[in-house]
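Lecture notes, unit on protein representations.

Consider one protein chain, 88 amino acids long.
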Amino acid sequence: MDVLWAIKRGTRKPTRIMYEANLSWKPLQRILGSMKSQGLIEEIDVTDNRDKRTNTMFEITQKGENIITYFNRGKEYLKIEEITKTRE
């Protein structure tokens, strides 16, 4: 979910997504690959971009947007009560 949120908020470069989602490189690559194969994100080739450090950027798809919406609805249904300890 953190990767989807990062891309939805406008973070499009792989390294920036990695930092924002607090992941290391290899797990991020597996997650991005899985999300691409499921149609949650799209990989965009930006070879003509002036930034020569990366040729790949990512955008969230409608299906990815739907996942975020469903996740938020699910969180609303789950009422997690905070357990507080009382000192005696």
